[in-house]
Amino acid sequence: THFGYETVTESVKQERVAEVFTSVAESYDKMNDLMSLGVHRLWKDHFVSSLNPGATNPIGMPQRILDVAGGTGDIAFRMLQHAHVNNGNPNVHVTISDINPAMLAVGKQRSLSLPASHQSSLSFLEANAEVLPKTIADNSLDLYTVCFGIRNFSNMPAALKEAYRVLKPGGIFACMEFSKVDKYPIFNAIYKQWSFSAIPLIGQLVAGDRDSYQYLVESIERFPSQTEFRDMIAEAGFSIVGKGYEDLTGGVAAIHKGIKP
Ligand code: SAM
Q1: Burial of 62 per CB tally in 10 Å (0-12, 13-18, 19+)
Q2: Domain segments of the chain: what residues?
Q3: ipTM of this complex prediction, to 2 decimal places
Q4: Helix, strand, coil percentages in the chain from 3-state DSSP, rounded to 5
Q5: Residues in the ligand 1 pocket, defined by CB under 6 Å
Q6: Domain 13-259 fold
Q7: What atom of ligand 1 comes closest to residue 18's alpha carbon?
Q8: Of 73, 92, 144, 166, which sits most exposed with the smallest number of CB within 10 A?
């Protein structure tokens, strides 16, 4: 029927994700530090340096970036800093898009403490990554980033298709997401213990919300492995360079990239 099984589970997931991020928005930044013992900052710095935003050839050329599921702005703010300061290129525009208005509201508030020149290179967009608005034209972006967002999407192939649509030929899709630590059984056992015991407990104690953090841990568990996810990116039409991903902290997180041919 019209309300096939997949459609129903997808909309249930979307509602659950909306509840979770509305609930965690205010405590999101503090909780990231606690849950990752601060390591998410190093991963995010590394992710952004590896993309080297603003390094156009020749330098100073415009660059259009979309940070999908951009939440409270961690990736977008770092990209602007890198483009303006490291590469001396203020001609970079970053759009933070997110499905959740509460997360975007925290991002907007935080952006007010950025230098004025960074603020004027930034815009916000409430949008579902699976159906980006047509105002983001086909073949219009140089870089598409999604950081710790894609595992929350109900329909990842649809989001990858949209990423492909909006990127220019030669444009880069870059994703950082939690991944698998299977190669290191002892570290994996410790990590699993931390995830399933400590994180929901910290969620309960600090954010007063055990269920949302339990959901986040389970969503990490369900996310495909490094190679499975790389194959999904290739399936969406992207070219893969080398093995297509880089493990961080033994695979706790991984960065995947694809290029639109
Ligand atoms: N990128 C930020 C970071 O790394 O700190 C935020 C990541 S946060 C864990 C995940 C974000 O994905 C949330 O802000 C949530 O609202 C957003 N999200 C979930 N489903 C989405 C969808 N279908 N489209 C766009 N954003 C979505």
Answers
A1: exposed
A2: 13-259
A3: 0.99
A4: 50, 20, 30
A5: 17, 21, 68-71, 74-75, 98-100, 103, 128-130, 147-149, 152-153
A6: Rossmann fold (3.40.50)
A7: 16
A8: 166
